[in-house]
Amino acid sequence: MRPFQNMLQCSEANDSQRCLCPPLHTWSLNNWQAQRKATKDHHTWMCHALQQQRARQGRGTFEYHYINELNMINRLVLGMESKQWLTARGLAGELRQHLTSYQLEQITFLERSNAILLAANMPFLERKASLATLLALGFDPKRDERWGGLTSPDAGA
Question: Is pTM, for the whole model, over 0.90?
Fold first, then answer.
């Protein structure tokens, strides 16, 4: 059984004694909470980078600019916008509460990468293409963390 499914079963039962593996439930829950916190932190940094980029261009930043950034990242990770993803699964509420740890890790990676690209003044469509390429290169959070999930270029040396 996948850890996230076990976590959901344990949460629904609301009783760790009825879980298939209580230590796994605890680990899964702690891991999910850590990933959720990381997405919040990187979201804040990405929003700040967006505001700075637009200020350098002499333009204001409005709510829809932030929404566009979030929709871009959600489409890359989920294959569709958040509203569509929630509706397709019969879910409601805040999207990230329904995501797995792995999906949250992908979002964190893309938010961090997007903040860097915003700081470099890269236009939206170029950032979108670059982020899609980074994700397609095989995001694996278990790889060298210094490279944001990507193996360093000189790893074989």
Answer: no
